[in-house]
Amino acid sequence: MPKDTSIRSVLIIGSGPIIIGQACEFDYSGSQAALSLKEEGIEVSIINSNPATIMTDKVIGDHVYLWPLTVDSIEQILKERKIDAVLPTMGGQTALNLCIEASERGIWDKYNVRVIGVDVAAIEKTENREAFRQLMVDIGVGVATSKIANSFLEGKEAAQEIGYPLVIRPSYTLGGYGGGFVHKKEEFDQALQRGLEASPTHEVLVEQAVLGWKEYELELLRDSNDNVIIICSIENFDPMGIHTGDSITVAPAMTLSDRCYQDMRNQAIKMMRAIGNFAGGCNVQFSVNPDNDEIIAIEINPRVSRSSALASKATGYPIAKIAAKLAIGYNLDELENQITKTTSAYFEPTLDYVIVKVPRWNFDKFKGANTELGLQMKSVGEVMAIGRTFIEAIQKACQSLEIGRAGLGADGKHNRSIEEIMYGLEHASWNRLFLIKDAMSMGVPLESIRKVTRIDKWFLSQIQELVQLETELKRYSLNNIPKDFFFTLKQKGFSDIQISYLLGNVTEDEVYDRRQSLGIKRVYKMVDTCAAEFAAQTPYYYSTFEEENESVSSDKKKVIVLGSGPNRIGQGIEFDYSCVHGLLAAKETGFEAIMINCNPETVSTDFNMADKLYFEPVFWEHVREIIELEKPEGVIVQLGGQTALKMAEKLQEHGIKIIGTSYNDMDVAEDRGRFSDLLKELDIPYPKYGVAENAEEAIIVANQVGYPVLVRPSYVLGGQGMSIVINDEDLEKAVVKLLGDLPGNRVLIDHFLDRAEETESDSICDGEDVHIVGLMEHIEPAGIHSGDSFAVLPPFSLSEKVISDMETYSKKIARALNVIGLLNIQFAVKNEKVYVIEANPRASRTVPFIAKAYDVPYINIAAKVMLGVNKLKDFTIVRKLEGFAIKEPVFSFYKFPEVTKELGPEMKSTGEAIRFIKDTEDPYFRKLVKDKSMYLSK
């Protein structure tokens, strides 16, 4: 069936601010769906309260409503604009819940709006645990023994009937919120109460716990002709008992028998057809008994999910893009395969490579948190790696995580305590993968590890092979490693720095030079969805070690943009937003735009966003070889946060041009000593400070600058390791811990300006002119990290003198640092005196907020300035803000009820929302002002 021509205008509901359990995978899906609908000439409106995403940018939607995600907001849009249909499947649980609420209130009927991509009845069937269980029984799909409970008494009765261990699953929640395992009777009452309170309908499923069973996911698409295809099979490395968002996952499934897969495939199709007659995407999760291949269904989600983004990047099949077209009437065989451009979208991808996803956690931000993994998702991001084998891919994934690992072990960071290792194997946390390797290195038998972890023997044997290879490598020196063995090491994912560590007394560069002399170089393979059966047209590549290189460097002028890696607290989606605009600006100005990134959730890793995408770790060895192949004009590091900035020194050392502000000038801003010397020279006030390399030096410095002091490491993002201390004893503890966590770092000791106001400026400099992008006033005082503060744009209570000083200092610093591009400066204001706290010559979390508030494409402008194709005078900048915009931080403390919610110099928020108010008489705003007065008077 061709496109439904009655649909001329579609509303897409976004997912709102980033929280644990609902991250930027929905930004990717929503953006892709919007662009897909616009291709069809459909007017796209978007509602989403998240200013940090590309989804809320005018390059994505025709009409963007940065409004609170409520039914009242939706109704207001429907009053203002003629909307024919709403697509709620791209905004996660938030969008689905809003769709149901709007339906219950009769909003869709009142404004004659169709729900497309799913139907409300399907959402109800999948979110209501009892309805889902009964439906599975009716269609003959196996489920775990379970009973629904709407009260404490019903829950107790269910537990008594089913027996332990049990799992509690609340209805209508995201990321496993409120759920958990109950191993014994004494734990049940508290777990049941928590589950009932978490569910908005006060309903839980009390279910038999199939702990240790294997877990799988299938991604499906269906069209209006009832054609269903399986896009991707995904196997969880971790067995049942750990939320899929916290599980290492592998695609395609590695240990699934063909008979079991075909059975699972048939059941998934039956399930999708049973929940409703709609065209769109679906995610189905299964559990398989490893002893007899018995299959039970866990859940079905009639929307795009975290796994949909992963499956899209894994296969190259753009699930959200095709799902959006199916929702407006197309059938699969009427759509083009986006990879081959010659076949239809009615096919199931076949992979000749392996994908591994590894989650990224931030437990360091939640001191005292329960770090054991279970039903409630706790990870804040993830990385994906592509290799020819599982072991190559998992080593690359470890290199991508931004936790200082050079691969899966062999980097000097192993654990040697057998007690800690065995406990960590039984009680899974962020480091279990590394502990498995450590256990094998210490001689713990594979079967003992399997019994404790219940991880499939095949995966464990793959890791054991790494241990054997390391043992063999230690027999050699760098100059006598046989070429074949060296080649094998690289095929197994060993980085040069791992090899240098295992050999001892050789550097990473020496290993690199040796293998280059042997002709052992990376080649790049295309992600083609069909195992090379058809020619692929999409420039989407991963690296491996083989003979044939499929990535041919063009003779065009090229620019490489380094991405920001996995999302984590302190470095989120705002940097991916910046990278996307960097790519767009490069393409608009005639450059071939090349992206390097490893985050499957993001828009920057969409294969049609850059001219060429390398889905690779943002890890020096990988970046270096791509640069050597492509020979770009330069590399943009300014847009990818700390991940990209950390590459700047290496790029400088190897004579590779950094586009924008130079490495030396960036280092002046990062190096507290050099920066303070610069401020002194410019006659700009700053808090007294000193630098120390140990606790004794720190105490001397603190007594010189005066307590209270702010203690922090240099070269970090998101306030990592920062603390405020008031005496020598607390200072000594803080410094010892900081140097233990970040060895080799220096400690900065600043006098802390107590009860000072904090303000910020963002600006763009082209080397001559400086444009102040925005000035913001914080509600919280100095001492609360800027990422955790409410920021008001423009300032509402600062004097003209303070504003003038902020502008003057911003311009002075921009010119003195020779900034080409973006600059963020944080100030403390006390007794009308403006002090500079720090300056960051890079993209910040506030620029996307300001760009959305003023409706000015600031990152795009900054990127063109950085590329040297424009000066600021070439742009006419018109701001459109009436009243004030407020950046509201959003936290995920509900995931860690055991930790303190107190805010400080270390950032803890996971996302942000934007709110517009007309004037200072707004009740919401007046409350903020009251809070500000309270903070400053404490």
UniProtKB/TrEMBL annotation:
InterPro entries: ATP-grasp, ATP_grasp_subdomain_1, CarbamoylP_synth_lsu_oligo_sf, CPAse_ATP-bd, CPSase_dom, CPSase_lsu, CPSase_lsu_oligo, CPSase_preATP-grasp
EC top class, as a word: ligase
Reaction equation(s) it catalyzes: hydrogencarbonate + NH4(+) + 2 ATP = carbamoyl phosphate + 2 ADP + phosphate + 2 H(+); hydrogencarbonate + L-glutamine + 2 ATP + H2O = carbamoyl phosphate + L-glutamate + 2 ADP + phosphate + 2 H(+)
Annotated ATP-grasp domain residues: 133-328, 676-867
E.C. number: 6.3.5.5
Keyword Aminoacyl-tRNA synthetase in record: no
Listed GO MF terms: ATP binding; carbamoyl-phosphate synthase (ammonia) activity; carbamoyl-phosphate synthase (glutamine-hydrolyzing) activity; metal ion binding
GO cellular component terms attached to this protein's record: cytoplasm
A family per Pfam: CPSase_L_D2
Family affiliation: Belongs to the CarB family.
Function: Large subunit of the glutamine-dependent carbamoyl phosphate synthetase (CPSase). CPSase catalyzes the formation of carbamoyl phosphate from the ammonia moiety of glutamine, carbonate, and phosphate donated by ATP, constituting the first step of 2 biosynthetic pathways, one leading to arginine and/or urea and the other to pyrimidine nucleotides.
Name of this protein: Carbamoyl-phosphate synthase large subunit
